[in-house]
Design brief:
alpha/beta, Quinone Oxidoreductase, Chain A, domain 1, 22 strands
Length: 408
């Protein structure tokens, strides 16, 4: 086989003749017909990703046909067309793999980064991470879907169902995603390098309702923004561009440092992090053995207990304190929400523990949707009363029509 090999970080790839590799029992060998070039390949070559390994064959947008199959591989056939993506192997036994979050595997291998990739005439792949492609579509057209398409779609899912979607960096992923979002009925706003009029025109050609520089604000607040560009400076700009409760998704494998920014850009729930979500802090774990690099820290998001509400999914559960006469006669009372108090009418005869639902006053539930606020009545009795109040309570106590302990 022939391959373009990275032998030294920062050096040019070298055309190399290699012995044809043989697949292991759970692997396949693929004769490559097309391999896209991704921005991440440049990060690999430039040594911008941690723990670079050389020599390595870059490339992870691979389309080809199987020409050799390992003994334990099932469900794939010689001659079948498959695609090989960035995620090339997972351990299958760590908490993330067992929990259905293989993309966060503790011991992964990445195609073209920690296992050889597709800038070659053939490659070896873990059969579990080779996608049957069928016979529809050309090899060259399908190749970008193995990374730009996958990352774009996953980012769109994380961004939620909002109708106004901003895309920062209008490269391979964004131009695929723009077409999908338009097909879904969303409005796409394209952000490019300032002054890049050609790419802005291309964005509009693909259906963007607006296109401008990344230093500009869109004509209206966005429901969500996805950052494909590797520039950390875009994060506060995107946070500023989304509405309250909006979401910003950082989609790249690598990004330059994010500058400090004022807290108000995160206030009003613009981040949209969900309970149970995992956050990886690269290189901040324990020291590696034998002088190896530090591991990572994985943080699991958990909502801290709030003094006023409990969280149930996107709904909030709270308590509504009522005076006895408000519960008996009915009243219009203030109910505390995330945005401040709202007035709610309590019907007459409202009972202890009875719940009232305030629609749309819970947490963000994706896109423009929000959960509800449920408040349960807590009828409060005064602990100290005046002489005049005591007379009124005694008169009420002698009322003959109400006995809470009356049995049938």
């Amino acid at each position: 086989m022939r391959a373009m090999v990275l032998n030294k970080i920062g050096a040019a790839l070298e055309w190399t003749e290699l012995t044809d590799p043989e697949p292991g029992p759970d692997e396949i060998r693929v004769k490559i017909s097309a391999c896209g070039i991704c921005r991440t390949d440049l990060h690999v070559v430039d040594g911008e990703l941690p723990d670079p390994q050389v020599p390595i064959i870059p490339g992870h947008e691979i389309v080809g046909r199987i020409d050799s199959i390992g003994a334990r591989v099932k469900g794939l056939d010689i001659g079948e067309r498959v695609g090989i993506p960035w995620l090339g192997h997972t351990c299958g036994i760590c908490p993330y793999c067992l929990g259905g979050q293989e993309n966060l595997c503790d011991h992964p291998l990445f195609t073209g980064y920690t296992r050889s990739g597709g800038f070659a005439t053939a490659t070896i792949a873990d059969a579990r991470f080779a996608f049957p492609l069928g016979e529809t579509g050309g090899d060259v057209a399908l190749a970008p879907l193995l990374c730009a398409g996958l990352i774009g779609w996953r980012s769109l899912v994380i961004a939620g169902q909002g109708k106004k979607l901003g895309l920062y960096g209008f490269g391979a992923a964004a131009h695929i995603l723009a077409q999908m979002a338009k097909w879904q009925g969303r409005s796409v706003y394209g952000f490019t390098r300032p002054g890049d009029l050609a790419t802005q025109a291309f964005a509009r050609q693909l259906g963007a309702v607006w296109a401008g520089g990344s230093d500009e604000m869109p004509p209206e607040p966005l429901d969500a923004a996805i950052i494909f560009a590797t520039v950390g400076d875009l994060v506060p700009l995107a946070l500023k561009a989304v509405r309250k409760g909006g979401r910003v998704v950082c989609a790249g494998i690598h990004m330059s440092d994010i500058p400090s920014f004022p807290y108000w850009l995160l206030w009003e729930e613009r981040q949209g992090v969900q309970a149970g979500q995992s956050i990886r802090v690269a290189g901040k774990g324990g020291e590696g053995s034998n002088g190896g690099s530090a591991g990572d820290i994985y943080l699991r998001v958990r909502y801290a207990e709030h003094p006023d509400w409990q969280v149930r999914g996107a709904d909030l559960i709270g308590t509504l304190e009522l005076a006895p006469w408000e519960a008996v006669l009915g009243a219009t009372v203030p109910v505390k929400t995330l945005e401040g108090n709202v007035s709610v009418k309590i019907p007459a005869g409202f009972q202890q523990g009875q719940k009232l639902r305030v629609r749309g006053k819970g947490l963000p539930a994706g896109g423009t949707k929000r959960g509800d606020l449920f408040v349960g009545a807590s009828i409060q009795v005064p602990s100290h009363i005046s002489k005049e109040d005591e007379l009124l309570w005694k008169q009420l106590a002698t009322h003959p029509t109400f006995n809470p302990r009356k049995t049938a």
